[in-house]
Structures
1.
Amino acid sequence: MAQRILPAIAAGLFAASLATSVLAQAPQTPPYATTKVEGTDNVYIFRYANHQSMFIVTKAGVIATDPISLRRPAAKAYIEEIRKITQAPIKYVIYSHAHYDHIAGGKPFKDLGATFIAHKNAKARIVELKPVDVVVPDEVVDRQKTINLGGTTLELIYVGRNHSDSTLVMRLPKEKIIFTVDWIPLAAIQFREMADTYIPDLEEGLKKVIAMDWNMLIAGHPGPGGRQTGNKDDARNQLAYLQDLSAAVKKAVSEGKSYADAEKEIKLPKYEKWGGYEAFLQMNIERYYDFHNRGI
Ligand SMILES: [Zn+2]
């Protein structure tokens, strides 16, 4: 009995010490914060825990994006933060893609009369799966849609499938900023086993985004050190990572290696300092193994 209980106690202590170390670092990082994007008059990032969302303030109203409120009251804080800057109406909420951790909890925005916009595949999925607490989009984007509000132009561009089949690239042409979520992480490898991700479309999409005119990327999650924005090098580096990963896994498959051996043997030291390297590299390898081994 003691043998069965002891590991549980050890695991509990380990979890407790992890929690303590997280708490010990916590005071520097408030649960949410709003940052004005450097070099702009009216573009902001709202961060809540480890998710972030772009919003734009104009005299004619506010364009908000992802509510990032899955099982937490982020939207309330988001609206309060907007209200510290402007009393102008919140005209739009635009979803980056269909994943609930980014789009849940928009009801407080809906109650204020905002129009919700998403890619048409996001709306189809939301209507089909009826996730709890996700506002159904009022309008959809197919290939491209442009919003003009109070002197700001925002393009909503679909470059094809990547991290989902509903990801938009939101581009501010005057400011040369893009906001696009989850598929161009800042100095990080891809999340877990790359669920919902389309290969090789992901790499093709990156080439399209790199060819577009912009200087700053606002990502859906801060990178290492809390960095909230990136640039084209982040997109180029992500493409290089995927190409290096793909080539290494393709070689392992061609040599007849098993999943287990490929996951154990493939190392990509160029990226070992990136977020997620230790935790997710084997899962990223598995995703590419399936692609090269079975075409799935
Ligand atoms: Zn996602």
2.
Amino acid sequence: MTSPTLTAFIAQAAALSRRHPDPADCVLGLAPLMLELIDQVDSFLEPQHYRSDPNHYARNLVHDAPDGGLSLYTLVWLPGQWTPAHDHGSWGVVGVVEAVLEERSYVRLSADRGADTGIELVRGGVILLGRRAVTSFVPNPDHIHVTGVPVERPRAVSLHLYGRMMNSFNTYDVAAGTRRRVALAHNES
Ligand SMILES: [Fe+2]
């Protein structure tokens, strides 16, 4: 059952992404919409969207556009759960619904010429995203980071809107300077 709030958000997001071929313009328009959406999550998030997994952070599909151009997920982070270092291959807008999501970013020093080796990454800053924080990223150069929740902090829940079906992305071995493509069904965790 889709709520009017969610339907309106998706329609606005689709219109913005059609109107703005430059992803930086797209996220500029979407960030304030995500901020509004966070305040209305009770109208469309259901218990299954708060599903967690004891083995890794859980990704729960909220909406996927029929044309594949948008997807919205909740991510549920139990204490101590982190992503690997990864990129997105898409623009994205993230809003925090509950607790604090931590982001540790990397800066890529070597140019991306498509090779999966010889990737020089250095650690960048840390950002603590509290409830109602909104952050975004655009590709090329892709945004590379680790996100999660340290063991000493409570469960966090975040909303993630992407400009495509998130059925693949790159993960990075920072020490080895390599990356590999990870494929997963867009509606699986
Ligand atoms: Fe990410």
